[in-house]
Design brief:
Strand order of the largest sheet: 1-2-3-4-5-8-9
Helix content: 10-25%
Order of helices and strands: EEHHEEHHEHEEEHHEEE
Radius of gyration: 17 Å
Structural class: alpha/beta
Distance between the termini: 34 Å
Strand content: 25-35%
Low-confidence stretches: 1-6
Largest sheet: 7 strands, mixed
Shape: globular
């Protein structure tokens, strides 16, 4: 499919790098700003009645001649199917998820692409707001959202996602990564790995 760029991009090496918004959601303001007093952060990030501030999940889209790469996938959209009737609607409401303006599907379409055109998906880590869009419900089961892509994630983060501590337990959902393993498309990285793709390498960091 031919690329049809509709917004500005940054040229790095053989790739055009574009911001790829996936929609907005909300998180607790105090949790996000930590030790910064609310009297300061609420001036620029006003909270709602539940003390949540609006966030936007933005991924990166790398457009090369042979590779179309997504770095992270956003939250995803199949909440009921992925997490069950009990968690699905509750999940979407809890995080005030809104795709009325932007979505990963719209971002791809704006660039002349469909999910089938993505060749590689690099997951920085498996928190739901970064990896939730990695899988989708096909009507019968969970499958990779990008059927022709190879996925990549750090081996240690997969281990953490499978056995999270109490603090991080709410951030990891097996529905976002186990189907990738079952499909045989999830490649595990072990530390720094140069030349993951032509012109693309990864560097390990412990934390956001």
């Amino acid at each position: 499919m031919q690329n049809a760029p509709t917004s500005k991009s940054l040229k790095i090496g053989d790739y055009r790098v574009k911001s790829a918004p996936t929609g907005v959601f909300a998180l607790d303001g105090d949790a996000m700003f930590g030790t910064v007093p609310k009297v300061l952060w609420e001036k620029t990030n006003p909270a709602d009645s539940q003390n949540r501030i609006q966030m936007e999940a933005r991924t990166l889209l790398l457009l090369g001649e042979k590779h179309k790469v997504l770095i992270d996938t956003g939250i995803g959209s199949d909440f009921v199917e992925k997490y069950g009737d009990r968690l699905g609607p509750k999940f979407a409401e809890m995080y005030a998820i809104d795709r009325s303006q932007n979505s990963i599907a719209k971002t791809l379409a704006d660039n002349g692409l469909s999910p089938n055109d993505i060749t590689d998906v690099i997951l920085t880590h498996l928190h739901f707001d970064h990896a939730g869009g990695a899988t989708k419900w096909d009507g019968k089961k969970l499958v990779p959202s990008y059927p022709n892509a190879q996925y990549y994630v750090q081996k240690k983060n997969l281990e953490t996602a499978r056995h999270p501590n109490v603090r991080e337990k709410a951030s990891y959902f097996s529905a976002n990564f186990e189907p990738l393993l079952e499909a045989g498309c999830l490649n595990l990285l072990d530390g720094n790995k140069q030349d993951l793709l032509p012109g693309v390498s990864v560097e390990l960091s412990h934390g956001h």
